[in-house]
Amino acid sequence: MAAPETTNYCAGKKTNYKKTSLKKMIDQLPALIIVAPLLGAFLTPIIGWRYQHLCHPWTLLILTIPLYSAVGALLKVIRSGPFGYNLGGWAPPWGIEYRIDYLSAIMLVLIAAIGLLAAVNARPAGKTEFKGKEAQLYTLFLLQITGLLGIVITGDLFNIFVFLEITSLSGYGLIAHGEEGAPMATFNYIIIGTIGASFYLLGVGYLYMATGSLNIADLATLLPALYHSKIILVGFAFFTTGVAIKMGLFPLHIWMPDAYTTAPNSVSTLIAPLMTKVAAYLLIRILFTLFAPHFALSVIPLATILGWMAMIAIIVGGVKALAQTDIKRMVAYIMVAEVGYIVMGISVMNRAGLTGAILHIINDAWMIFCLFLTIGAISYRGHGREIYHFQNLSKKMPLTMAAFVIAALSMCGIPPACGFFSKWYLIMGMITAKQWIFAATLLCSSLINAVLFFRVIEKAYLAPPESMGHGHEDHEAENIERKDAPLSMMIPIIISALAILLLGLFSGKIIDVVIQHAVPAIF
Amino acid sequence: MGEVIYSAKPLWAVLVSMVAAFLILLTGDKARNLREGWTILAALIKFGLVFSLIEPVLAGKTIEYTLINLLPGVALQFRVDAFGLLFGVVAATLWIPTSFYSIGYVRTLNEHAQSRYFFSFAMCLSAAIGVAFAGNLLTLLIFYEILTIATWPLVIHHEDESAISGGRKYLVYTLVAGCILLLAIAITYSLAGTLDFVGGGFLAGHGSPGLLIILLIMFIAGFGVKAGIMPFHEWLPSAMVAPTPVSALLHAVAVVKAGVFGCVRVILFVFGPQLLHELGVWTILAGVVAFTVVAAGLLALGQDHLKRRLAFSTINNLALIILGVSLLSKNSMTGGILHLANHAFMKITLFFCAGAIYAKTHKDHVSQLDGLGRQMPFTFAAFAIASMGLCGLPPVNGFISKWFLCLGAVETHQLVFLFVILTSALLDVAFFFPIIYNGFFKQPLPDVAGKIDEAPLIMVIPLCATALFSIIFGIFPNAFLNFFNIVRLAVTNVLGG
User: Which residues are B78's β-sheet partners?
Assistant: First the structure.
């Protein structure tokens, strides 16, 4: 009788031990999110030195780690609230603290998921666009994702700058590999982007000068006493301007359309959806975590200024997009408008508006991702990006075009795609704030989007005029070869299209579980 | 409102045709019979599901199903009450004959892109049932927008110049309307904190009268676009470029009725008769709609294109429904809501006839129909029955709803509206009877066959069936589907007692 008992005891102890070690592992998850892609990036050139073809699987392998850890972190936050992680065991405010709350957790999952899918997608196009330099591609790719994740995860102002620079520099390198005009666009981007980063750094300097601290949580308690100090005001101005440049907020957007249009397709799918969103995240952090929300309302009227800038951004972005015939450039201009959406939601400073802004950060990332993926796939199959090249494309690439239509409808705010729900919250925010003009702008913008996308959909789904009347599809079907995107492009395309629908259907759930906790409690 | 049953049946009723839509797409053009099989199967299952809801609803119960929460206090929710059920039953019932008819139509004319056609059709039906069973404004809007988009491929089906421009016009009107609705619903939510339909309205006591009036205008403009209320009607005649079965089911039953349905929902279940009386706007609303009734009738007179004439008649009748409801008296509401069902049966018959004529002879203008009744007697007989019904002649079902509409107009002591209703009936006679006369009594044109030579049976049987049902429902309004009882119950739900 005794023997089984002991074995049981042993087994029990073993599982206990296992549990504690697992728990320790889970405790280190936040560090893994950054360390894995960073180390992976440094190892990529070594692998690529001999085995170029192994770089892609290696990147995928590495990128599953942050995704897994980010999901774990999100679940932990949902279960037990925000938590911190002291890097190297140094307690804040002296050491660097990784701070994961509701907002950063969901951003981490977003970045890691899109990063992984973008990496899956990068292979076919990367082979031609980065011929013989795939190791470089994937090194920079991983660095880019490291930087984006880092900005979101860290709770240290200077550390954010470091990650911002990692992101930007790897971004410059990647974009410069693009088509004709890419070097020039990159050069513009470098100049403007560096100014943005320097502004941000100056902001950090001013705050450090006044308070002697770099930890966001620490600063949030120190700053209110200094709100009327000139130093803080100047620092704040540098912060917001720097971040506005990075997110491409009108009128600081001029680098964006060129850079994202000329970027290689394997790369624009990663940078375009995420870079502006992470900068928007940073703006929310600065306005609502670093500073108290009333600072941007009562101390200086930044909220009002942002609101009007956002409105102009939405209009200008939409109108400029209307003027484009190159679809990639069109989407790049739509992004200018979408940034306006997010900033507008932030600017009204109420619960519904901010909920809408955060929801739109997530939704828009997937919509833009899906659009760039489909455009990339279309280019990869040798079709042009001009709208008239879309003639009959629905028959040549039916699945790709179906995904494109889903993303487009979401952009127009057609339910149940996710774009509808963020628009709903944004409009609720405008109504709560009694900003009727802003509400009207939002509605007009979705109509402009409808015009933009139905132009393309019409082209893609309707038969060309010359075959009208006599040309029934039986004849055409013979001429048109159906050749959809390759599998490694198709998988991300389908997942992103599904994500657009599922995010829409479950937006109530996402808000209940995550976003409503991410909005500052005072609203 | 009595007992509430929680059942997923409404959800299945919506999903069945959505699933069928994707099966249709997967099957594709290669196995046409299988593909059409999905349509028929889905139509029958959908009818069965909706039919099974009639009994509990008539027993005073409400069937509810909540899918997920969209916003705090607002869920993606189906709630089947008498009024929603009426629309649901009409749409689901008429999908069956339309399915058979469509198959005949597209095969006779050897239409292109048939898979897309049947796919969109099934999606539309899903959305229409979703609109019917929506338990709150947001759910309604979601399905309403899906309906908008799903109809577009049908409008542009021919892919020629006029189809594309018709499609663009359609999109401009409906998407703008969708935006206005979104704003209106958001304002409603911020005022009342709820969007659930309540018989007799839930907005009373929220917001200032001025804001409420603006809100009502936004709602009526938003839903009125699909309902073809003037001046938002322009898209409907242009959208007649669509294949005829599309015009039949969507531009006489599902799509435009969704607009009417939305208007009625807003008038009776969001604002409520009480509040509209207090605001004093119902006469203005009724006046606007009454203008549409007469103007559409007059415009119909001038149309030589048969389907355009029918389109204007549709605008006329849709406005009549809204007129009945906005008069806010018991009988006028009964008439208006009943006309929603009755008009569907008659108008679908007329479109079926127009389609049969076109499929057989490629004629689509009224002036080309001389003597054609001798070649296609069944089609023209059905046409005659349905148009008599629309003129309000017994024993066709149009008589009953118009009778109640007239009673209602008398009840409200606004004789001008009685005059409007009677004028519209006269106008109906003026633009329908010449067609019947030309068809049966004029000297046949040289290309008319001397013997009976109808369109294929698969088209003629559905149109005869809907004509027959128009008569049956005229004599026995409660036959089979219990329309009259459902309408009575819907009115009781609104007015109470």
Answer: B65, B134
User: Which residues from A are below 8 Å from B142, CB to CB?
Assistant: 415-416, 420
In what helix (H) or strand (E) does residue B4 lie, and over which residues does it extend? strand B4-6
Query: pLDDT class for B121, splitting at 50, 70, 90?
Result: confident
Are B164 and A458 an interchain contact pair (Cβ–Cβ within 8 Å)? Answer: yes
pLDDT in tens, B303-319: 888 888 888 998 999 99
Number of domains in chain B: 1
In a domain, B439, yes or no: yes
To the nearest whole number, what is the mean pLDDT of chain B? 87
Q: pLDDT band at A273, cuts 50/70/90? A: very high
Strand partners, A154: A98
Across B370-384, b (16+ Cβ under 10 Å) vs e yields bbbbbbbebbbbbbb
**Cβ–Cβ below 8 Å for B142 and A505:** no
* Residue B276 clears pLDDT 50, i.e. is over it: yes
Please tell me whether residue A215 adopts helix, strand or coil conformation.
strand
Residue B291 counted as domain residue: yes
ipTM reported for the complex, 2 dp? 0.87
Give B80's strand partners.
B63
Three-state DSSP state, A98: strand
Q: Can you give the residue ranges of every domain in chain A?
A: 27-292, 301-523
**CA A262 centroid distance within chain:** 19
pTM score of the predicted model: 0.90
**Which domain covers residue B338, as residue numbers?**
281-497
A483 burial level (CB within 10 Å; 0-12, 13-18, 19+) = exposed
Q: Cβ contact (<8 Å) for B142 and A413?
A: no
Q: Under an 8 Å CB criterion, which residues of A touch B? A: 409, 412-416, 420-421, 423-424, 427-428, 431-432, 439, 443-444, 446-447, 450, 454, 458, 461-463, 465, 468-469, 472-473, 505-509, 511-512
- Cβ–Cβ contacts within 10 Å for residue A331, how many? 29
Scanning the structure block, which residue is given the tokens 């920079």?
A140
Question: Minimal Cα–Cα distance from A31 to chain B, Å?
Answer: 35
| Coil, helix or strand at residue B180 | helix
Contacts of A443 in chain B (CB under 8 A): 179-180, 182-183
Q: Is the pLDDT score of A10 beyond 50? A: no
The pLDDT of residue A465 is 55
Q: In this complex, which of B142, B156, B180 lies closest to A416 when CB atoms are compared?
A: B142
User: Does A471 score more than 60 pLDDT?
Assistant: no
